[in-house]
Write a structure and sequence with these properties.
Blueprint (H helix, E strand, L loop, with lengths): L7 H21 L4 H26 L3 H27 L12 H23 L4 H23 L3 H23 L4 H29 L4 H5 L7
Helix pairs in contact: 1-2, 1-5, 1-6, 2-3, 2-6, 3-7, 4-5, 5-6, 6-7
């Protein structure tokens, strides 16, 4: 199969899928929170392009609305909220020393191969777009989980959680050719509420123990007064 022989929609979706997978790898290896948030915003922008491309190719007007909501929430609002929290907690100069960084990246590559290995026998008779979209979506979900496991900062865990939602959203948009508008609005509202709640939790946790390092949180124990 040659990419140049495929139609415009297929070429665009496959290219965006590859870039979304790449951003998940970039997030996995980031030690600075600000860079991690920037890559997350870049991944959100790729989702906007994929949604707008699907709307243009299929003539679905509501996908443009979904792309606009994604642009506002995942490219601007949520990264801005996380960026503000990083500066408020004075974490913008911290560099997280990742343990076994090479092993983590190799594990991420293994998860991508595993995603294709699991899904290909199930959907091998479908279109090349569906195969790659679902495989990349699953790999982004698994890489988001690995990001949450391998990083210590709670903010990195939030980015990993949001990245998992990005993978599910991308797979749903491409495989279903656009979810119903009410479903997309519900997902957007849930993501916004989750981001606000995370911000509130960050503030209270940092005031209580003066750190968002999950290793320190794990060492907390109850003390009788």
């Amino acid at each position: 199969m040659e990419l140049i022989k495929l139609d415009f929609y297929t070429q665009g979706v496959l290219s965006i899928a590859a870039l979304i997978g790449l951003t998940s790898f970039l997030m996995l290896g980031q030690g600075r929170l600000l860079r991690l948030i920037f890559v997350f915003a870049l991944q959100g922008l790729l989702l906007v392009l994929a949604t707008a491309l699907a709307g243009y190719s299929m003539g679905n007007f509501h996908l443009y609305i979904s792309a606009s909501i994604t642009l506002v929430l995942k490219v601007f609002l949520i990264p801005w909220m996380l960026h503000k929290q990083v500066y408020k907690l004075n974490l913008h100069r911290d560099v997280e020393a990742l343990k076994n960084n090479t092993a983590v990246m190799l594990g991420g590559a293994t998860l991508v191969v595993f995603s294709y290995y699991v899904l290909h026998p199930v959907i091998q008779n479908t279109s090349v777009v569906l195969v790659n979209a679902l495989a990349v979506g699953l790999s982004v979900v698994l890489l988001g989980m690995l990001l949450m496991i391998s990083h210590r900062h709670a903010i990195a865990h939030v980015v990993g959680f949001m990245s998992i939602e990005n993978g599910l959203f991308f797979a749903a948009i491409v495989s279903t050719r656009g979810m119903p508008m009410v479903v997309e609005l519900g997902i957007a509202f849930d993501v916004l509420v989750a981001a606000i709640l995370f911000g509130i939790f960050f503030l209270h946790i940092s005031r209580s123990i003066d750190s968002l390092d999950v290793d320190q949180m794990n060492r907390l124990n109850e003390v009788d007064q």
